[in-house]
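Proteins fold reproducibly. Next comes a concrete instance:

***
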Amino acid sequence: MASAIETLSFTLDALRRAYAEGVSPEAVVGEAFRRLEAAGDPGILILETREQALRAARALGTPDGRPLWGIPFVVKDNIDVADLETTAACPDFAYVPRESAFVVSRLTAAGAILIGKTNLDQFATGLVGVRSPYPAPRNAIDPALVPGGSSSGSAVAVARGIAAFSLGTDTAGSGRVPAALNNIVGLKPTLGALSGSGVVPACRTLDTVSIFAMTVAEAFEVLGIAAAYDADDAYSRPVAIRPLTAMHAGIRIGIPDEATLETFGDDEQAEHFRSTVVRLRTAGASVTKIDFGPFYAVARMLYEGAWLAERVAAVGARLVDAPETLHPTTRAVLEPGLRLSAVDAFEGLYRLKALARRCEDLMEDVDLLCVPTIPTVVTLDEIAADPIGPNSMLGTYTNFVNLLDLCGIAVPTGLRGDGRPGSLTVLARKGEDHRAASVALAIEAGTLGATGLARPVNRVAAGVVDADDIAIAVCGAHMSGLPLNHELTSRGARFLKACRTAPEYTLHALAGGPPFRPGMVRKRGGGAAIEVEVWALPRAAFGDFMAGIPSPLGIGSLALDDGSLVKGFLCEPWGLEGARDISHFGGWRGYLRDKDRPQPAEARAHAV
């Protein structure tokens, strides 16, 4: 019979509970290596750090409040760890750094324990995970499939429950494709949010460290810990990692139209994507189909011109002076870059600028994009028969992302009809990582990786109000996307849900402005159900928020359509002088969308 620790889920929440109950970090590290041995997969790690990890576990002492105290993790072996060899899956390239990469230092300072360095496609060039001189990691879900790359070992280690999270890198999709193929979450942050100091470059202008985890919330938590501006990294940017919230109702999502939805004949993939889109609509999203042709045109540029030349620059003289030290497929991919000129590079930059403008125009009326993470699965037999074609196919929905400076997150969406893992990627504009993750929260589904363990209920997605919060309903300018929403978000409020009041209220457009505001009044009999948003506001910030509410508005108890009571905005009856009854619009957004009346400029600008 398996012991309790052998069945312990290696998620942040489960490990924290285990530590609170007296489990030791040393026992967890021991269990991580037992799982590694049980996997019988010599391709997962290039270098294991058993003794160092056990010493680090013993040195932790008692729980000290650090957010990753005792949490086991692994890093891709193109990311430096002090005094451990970095190979980038090229033994002849190996070196021993004196310092850890910036992101690794932040994670270990937060209490995380490194248990090894993982296998990868050599020099992070590939999406299949088998372009390595070491044994290729085995796909954790289906051994007939490639593990995905280039962050192959990083994804498999998490999917098998060996590590609670891992670091990969992502230039063309290396942080998303392996996540899709191994049924886990792969978070590709805004470029520059995670420092590249101490990371072997593949394509420096497009590279980012990526994060693998079992759930959206945990990947996003690790991002919040690892992200910081690094003055020593010329590509670092100060990117604010805003709190994770539930998906806002009415969020506008763009998807490929039927003519440009590409699955290369994989009907299971196409059907699974369509069913996931239905789930998004059911969750309250507004979905628009758009022509993805320009995005695919951008994707094809990644291994042409400027960026292929940049990959050649990253490998350096090795491609000419010691080509025999490279994996044959890596060499075949990179060698055409030797024939490119500076003119070719600049022509590529000009073409990208033109295509990016077309993509921006297509995204003008949407908040986010949702795409299949991969268009279809790829088997080991297929990649053995053609080492390059199927790899290129895997980049259909990933290659364009960094070129367009988007952020994204690949999320498990349950099994396809044939039992293989389904995955959706949510893409957002730079700096909107929280927005992409909020949609991913709403649709993540299925068991955790290859463990068979049930996915825990996420408190944010479920709209759970913590003891330190007060649920407050807003009906006007404080709603998401409107002029005063910052008065909530700046105080740490998080979105819970969009709903309606009980049918006992009237809504009125108050006189004055800007900002233009509504007032809601309770009416016994003859009232309407009014659209509201419910936010969780920290109790410590509630008084400060209240102090800024002007007369005739106030906070009272508001009845929702499910029979519950929350605090919410109400208007004193005397404040309706000069106001217009707009109850028939169903809510403030409906009123702003009304095309039959002249709208104040600010109202038009903020209508969503």
